[in-house]
Write a structure and sequence with these properties.
The protein is 61% helix and 6% strand. By secondary structure, the chain is mainly alpha-helical. The chain has a single domain, classed as Arp2/3 complex 21 kDa subunit ARPC3. Strands 1-2 form a two-stranded antiparallel sheet. Strands 3-4 form a two-stranded antiparallel ribbon. Strand 1 and strand 2 form a beta hairpin. The radius of gyration is 18 Å and the shape is globular. 33% of the residues are buried.
Length: 195
């Protein structure tokens, strides 16, 4: 495992949390007039965080990658409810569809299911101000099982080792560009003038 990738993903998540805490000073989230704008802005920002986490995936073994796309969706859904979580999930899902491949459907279903679980946890908590550690813990366990179910749905018998689903590069199985130090997937450049 390349710990640089793990540290990069943690930094991206911390950036999202920092924005979230600063945004309270910029907006008036408790004002009903701005509540829908608040949900849209936070959903889009945390959806962007999910997309960046998908781009900055973590290599766990040679040719095996994971990413943290469900983490920002779960966080914002837990603290801000259904709409913010769904908007974040739709942003991540749109990027996953754009990437394409046979795992796209499993990726989309997984991120939408996590948004639904986060919305349920938010409702169970009784709102943003009442979220406690047990709500976050139950959501974390649900997110784990939803994500594992998405991996298992995508994995074939050849991908299961010791009862665990081990997935090749999330449909981005092409070898990384030798000039790309991070091994990130990039779409091939389109042919055009001067190409």
């Amino acid at each position: 495992m390349d710990y640089h990738h793990l540290l990069e993903a943690a930094g991206i998540g911390v950036s999202g949390v920092l924005f979230y805490s600063l945004a309270y000073g910029w907006f008036e989230p408790d004002d009903p007039r701005y509540r829908s704008i608040w949900a849209v802005v936070l959903g889009l920002v945390w959806g962007g965080v999910a997309v960046v986490l998908m781009i900055s995936r973590i290599q766990t073994a040679e040719g095996v990658f994971v990413d943290g796309r469900v983490i920002p969706v779960a966080i914002i859904g837990l603290f801000e409810g259904w709409w913010a979580g769904l908007i974040a999930a739709l942003a991540a899902a749109a990027y996953r569809v754009w990437l394409g491949g046979s795992g796209a459907a499993a990726g989309v279903v997984t991120v939408i299911a996590v948004a639904a679980a986060a919305g349920l946890a938010h409702r169970w908590a009784g709102g943003t101000a009442r979220v406690r550690i047990h709500h976050a813990f139950v959501l974390a366990v649900a997110t784990f099982f939803i994500t594992f179910g998405g991996f298992a749905r995508r994995a074939g018998p050849q991908d299961v080792r010791g009862g665990l689903a081990v997935l090749p590069g999330d449909d981005r199985d092409r070898p990384p560009d030798p000039g790309d130090a991070h091994g990130e997937h990039r779409r091939p450049a389109r042919a055009g003038p001067g190409a």
